[in-house]
């Protein structure tokens, strides 16, 4: 899915500052390493449900760069989900970034991590991911990436995953509609499992479990 198009489709939302931030962020990401990002986006446009194909790197592709490029793409598409969440995820109703009752997340965008309204946490997290992935200190080259920088991708994955978990547990209709269009959480979950970027214990959205259950149910009916 072309993230810029996804953002343009949401022009009716009332917050021009948030829309502008998302739009500029998408332009920034599209300007870097165009060939690799285009390869990933072409596979997504061809069939966003063919996750194995999308995650399969070209022969000879540096694994660190491949993970980096996919993480940029996830951030782009998560901006589309963030814009949709804006319609009902308000600071006075979602006062904390929560998933289940056991999970309350602190926002790392402040000098001392603290609680943030969920929509602010989402904005701060995506902004922080953009800053890190654009850092010349950690990612000076898009041809090869040193292992110490690749190690930082796991932290980004854990933080942006919380956007999925909040949407799933508190804005299920929006989550389901966006997931049916993009398969984004499916793809992200398989991505972090494929490259061991997150612990399975932290993957609290039961999206792959549902996939297995639906498959078993289909076989039983057959």
Poorly predicted runs of 5 or more residues: 1-14, 26-32, 215-222
Number of distinct beta strands: 2
Structural class, from secondary structure content?
Answer: mainly alpha
Q: Mean pLDDT, nearest integer? A: 82
Count helical runs: 11
Q: Radius of gyration, Cα only, in angstroms?
A: 17 Å
Q: What string gives the helices and strands in order?
A: HHHHHEEHHHHHH
Which percent band covers the strand fraction? under 5%
Quaternary organization:
single chain
Main sheet?
Answer: 2 strands, antiparallel
N-end to C-end Cα span: 33 Å
Q: What strand order characterises the main sheet?
A: 1-2
Shape: globular
Helical content stands at 55-70%
Question: What can you tell me about this protein's structure?
Answer:
This protein is mainly α and 222 residues long. The chain contains eleven helices and two strands, in the order αααααββαααααα. The protein has a two-stranded antiparallel ribbon. Helix 5 (63-85) runs parallel beside helix 8 (153-170). The longest helix has 23 residues, at 63-85. Residues 1-14, 26-32 and 215-222 have low confidence and may be disordered.
List the topology elements.
Elements: H1 3-8, H2 16-30, H3 34-46, H4 51-55, H5 63-85, E1 97-98, E2 104-105, H6 118-133, H7 147-150, H8 153-170, H9 172-182, H10 184-194, H11 207-221
Antiparallel strand pairs: 1-2
Helix pairs in contact: 2-5, 3-5, 5-6, 5-8, 6-8, 8-9
């Amino acid at each position: 899915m072309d993230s810029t198009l996804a953002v343009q489709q949401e022009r009716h939302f009332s917050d021009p500052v948030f829309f502008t931030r998302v739009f500029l962020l998408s332009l920034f990401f599209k300007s870097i390493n165009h060939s690799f990002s285009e390869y990933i986006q072409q596979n997504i446009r061809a069939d966003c449900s063919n996750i194995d194909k999308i995650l399969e790197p070209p022969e000879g592709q540096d694994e660190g760069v491949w993970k980096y490029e996919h993480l940029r793409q996830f951030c782009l598409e998560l901006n589309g989900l963030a814009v949709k969440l804006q319609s009902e995820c308000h600071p006075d109703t979602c006062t904390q970034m929560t998933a289940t009752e056991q999970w309350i997340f602190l926002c790392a965008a402040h000098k001392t991590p603290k609680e943030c309204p969920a929509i602010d946490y989402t904005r701060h997290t995506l902004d922080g991911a953009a800053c890190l992935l654009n850092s010349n200190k950690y990612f000076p080259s898009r041809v090869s990436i040193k292992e110490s920088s690749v190690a930082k991708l796991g932290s980004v994955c854990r933080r942006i995953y919380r956007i999925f978990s909040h949407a799933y547990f508190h804005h299920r209709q929006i989550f389901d509609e966006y997931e049916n269009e993009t398969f984004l959480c499916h793809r992200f979950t398989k991505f972090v499992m494929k490259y061991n970027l997150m612990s399975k214990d932290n993957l609290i959205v039961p999206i792959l479990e549902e996939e297995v259950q639906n498959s078993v149910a289909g076989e039983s009916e057959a």
